[in-house]
Amino acid sequence: MAFNLLWYLSLYLYLQYGYTTIIFQYLLGQQGSILKDLFKIIVFPGILFVGVVSLFAEWYDRKIYARLQNRVGPFHTGYHGILQPLADLIKLLAKEDVVQSGAEARSLAATPIFALTLSLVMLMFIPVYKSTGIISFEGDLIVLLFLSTIFALTVILTGWFSTNRFSEVGTARAGMQLIAYEIPFVLSVITPAIIVGYYYSAPIQVNNYLLALGVSLPSTLVPPTALSVLTVANITQIQATIGMPFIVFAPISFAVFVISLMAELEKVPFDIPEAHTEIVAGWQTEISGRKLGIFRLASDLEYLWGAGLAAALFLGGPWGPGSQIGLSELERLMGAFPWGYVIGTGWFLVKVFAIIFLIANLRTLFARFRIDQVVRGSWKYLIPLAFLNIIILEVAFYFDLFGWQATYYLLLWITILI
């Protein structure tokens, strides 16, 4: 069977490219791009990079959280306990994996692997050193929102497969909380896309206005599509173009995003699905050993994903002073080292850890909410606040308070006069 498959593949390639020599030339020509893509996926900014940064982010979060509560936090393993998250992961992977009788053993073993894979795939969309991630296409923001919803369903299914009374209570709480906070999370995420849509449509409106006055322009502007607006790369690039992060235009949406992210990650005060004083460990009650270690790593990766997405949508991602150095075609041909990529990565990490620092402070300030308070807070406060920010932006766009239409209008008139 393998021989037949190899024969059919060779025949297909021969018919596709004509001669055997052309086939080998094609494979040799693709080798450089394949190695480059593998380096991106495995080393930087792929699996190895995000794995190290996520473990460091867990140590950083635990350190900040402990110091704000007058505790020491991780201290012994490594320098100031910096290797403690890695030691915890290795310890859990080495422990015995216990599955209670009556549980769906195979399904329960598959969910942590699925969660880890899902979190790694979501991180591939985050721009780390330039405006695009490893995976980037028009409308990728919609795919990201879909994948985050699937991650929430993975949590619910894990508690359901364990068939434990405490897990069932924690799963019910997790389901209500995660589904309730998906709505404000989505509304806050699409707010930067609305800003990008207005930025793209401003020259179209000016062009239509000039055409109404009888002034014809030599070029025809193409209106933006919904997919081009809902693209992480375009959102990041527009912030670099105008030189201002979107948090200035949508501070309410940024606040809603951070609060919704804490609820999605089940961070204090939204840790009610795994309240240790009431229901042991919630949906993770029967999760132990390797499964618990993989879930811990997946949770750290999701934490990094949320902070990275906030940095990309509201803070410009890797954009910052000096991040564009070494990106010109001439410098690439001359073999110059792309320092702009290094600087962009530095800006990205600074913004990510600033968001983690903010979340650690919010975890310290508030005590755990009840489940009814958690769900009511989403429907009663966060969703109206997210809509409020969108309405404020629409009013600002209508009166051109940002001056983008006036700027395009002035530039076009100067061009026509010249």
What is the number of helical segments per DSSP (H or I, 4+ residues)?
Answer: 16
Distance between the termini: 71 Å
Number of strands: 0
Oligomeric state of the chains in view: single chain
User: What's the overall geometry?
Assistant: globular
What's the pLDDT, averaged over the residues? 84
Structural class, please?
A: mainly alpha
- Major sheet description: none
Number of domains: 2
Helix coverage percent: over 70%
Strand portion:
under 5%
Tell me the radius of gyration.
25 Å
Runs in which pLDDT lies below 50 for 5 or more consecutive residues are 1-9, 11-15, 23-28
Order of helices and strands: HHHHHHHHHHHHHHHH
Describe the 3D structure.
The chain is built from 16 helices and no strands. The protein folds into 2 domains: 1-42, no CATH class; 48-417, no CATH class. Mean pLDDT is 84; it is low at 1-9, 11-15 and 23-28. It is mainly alpha-helical and 418 residues long. It has helices at residues 2-17, 20-42, 47-68, 84-94, 105-123, 140-162, 165-212, 226-229, 232-242, 251-265, 276-279, 289-314, 329-333, 339-365, 371-398, 404-417.
